[in-house]
Amino acid sequence: xxxxxxxxxxxxxxxxxxxxxxSDSADPALALQGVGWLTRKAIGLATVTLHTKEYVDEQGxxxxxxxxxATGGVKGNTENRTLxxxxxxxxxxxxxxxxxxxxxxxxxxEIGDGTDAFLTDGWEEGQTEWIVSNVESLDxxxxxxxxxxxxxxxxxxxxxxxxxVAKGDERVELRLVYDYVPEQA
Length: 185
Fold this sequence. Notes:
The chain is mostly beta strands. It has a single domain (about 15-180), classed as Calycin beta-barrel core domain (Lipocalin, Beta Barrel). The protein is about 10% helix and about 50% strand. The protein has helices at about 25-30, 35-45, 115-120, and strands spanning about 15-20, 50-55, 60-70, 75-80, 90, 95-105, 130-135, 145-155, 155-165, 170-180. A ten-stranded antiparallel β-sheet has the order 4-3-2-1-10-9-8-7-6-5. A hairpin with a 5-residue loop joins β7 and β8. The radius of gyration is 16 Å and the shape is globular. InterPro entries: Pericyclase_pydY-like (IPR053037).
């Protein structure tokens, strides 16, 4: 389902399901990140659901906590994002030891150096802020830059993440598009 107008980057709380038809395959990006073939195939077959809670703490800092689940309720990665642009280290079973930072940007020029069309183009008309996440692998040598926002996909408003994974001279571009799942009464 398309994202309703009341859902913004300031309120992502809810359930979002990755739309595999509208999203790019994650396999090339995962391969570049050193994820094994069998794990990549299992991820490719699964439907990934994001259970998202967004809130602002007492200091006024936004937090976005995402618990991923795969088809059948299989637990995936946990993303705990603190949007203060401060590097934090983290280790998980899929990506290993990484450090990452996430923050708000108010112009496309602030997304990287502003010249990467894959990251900056195609966002919803009138969008004035984005979430940008930068992750560096501390043991596998790759980097990820991910931009979150809303875009028009086939005439519908969708939450999306544009992602660039790089390692050495190799680069993989990946767009993830999500369906909104309304709360059940």
